[in-house]
Amino acid sequence: MSATAPTRPVLPPDITARKGGVPLVVLTAYTTPMARLVDAHCDIALVGDSVGMVLHGMPSTLGVTLEMMILHGRAVVRGLSKAMAVIDMPFGSYEEGPAQAYRNAAQLMMETGAPAVKLEGGQHMAETIAFLTARGVPVMAHVGLTPQSVNTLGGYKVVGRDDEAARVMADAKACAAAGAFSIVLEKVPVGLAGRITAELPIPTIGIGAGVDCDGQVLVIDDMLGMFTAFRPKFVKRYAELGAAADQAIATYAEEVRRRAFPGPEHGFADQVKS
Questions:
Q1: Helix and strand tally (H, E) in the chain?
Q2: pLDDT digits (tens, 9 = 90+) for 198-241
Q3: DSSP assignment, residue 140?
Q4: Active site residues
Q5: What is the residue-wise DSSP string for 64-105?
Q6: What predicted TM-score, i.e. pTM, was given to this entire model?
Q7: Right CATH number for 12-262 from 3.20.20.60, 3.30.160.20, 3.40.190.10, 3.20.20.70?
Q8: Helix, strand, or coil (residue 247)
């Protein structure tokens, strides 16, 4: 009887090889328990800088630090055995230039064990992407709506309509040519996302970019109904765990106040019966 071969974790070349095949399944994860749930069903667990808004109550992702990403990255990697962890590079950790980006990407990978990073930006980040990939840092790119640029974009709006379409296409092609192994398209019009997907040799992963992308990603707290501060149009709620948790907490509080909890079955006797 032969021993069962251990499960090999997904790596960047595996993701690139999925171009045009069965769609890639991606969800964010920020903790070990959630990573274990994601690992059972997804190809990639994205440790997104959305952690700042979802778990830390920040108004945007701009306040997220490298230290925060390392902390949550370690937690997620501990919970994965199959899915690949990809860690967002936070605002200010890579925009200065390729050398800065390499130092911080290397630190993220060394201190978390994640095999890849993600950074935002198109043509202006191509040099940095090429610099990183040439030095052993796999990069997932991100174009369209780039949340770290929300202040210059003027809000979380659709990017790529009308005159912007050519620029978004050029951004995506520049990232692919620079060596990115995959690319996130966020809030890109459906038709444009389909054209980008058809023309790029690497997988596209959509979020608010339509069904023609090579995969999809959502923030897990959005799709589970746990983050309710706002709800983007592209989010489908697959559960309402926030409402269920609210009801459970309310019931607990009510039972404590009327001394219905703890009951006799939740306590311990003064002495053990012989």
A1: 11, 8
A2: 999 999 999 999 999 999 999 999 999 998 777 888 999 999 99
A3: E
A4: 186
A5: --HHHHHHHHHHHHHT-SSSEEEEEPPTTSSTT-HHHHHHHH
A6: 0.94
A7: 3.20.20.60
A8: helix
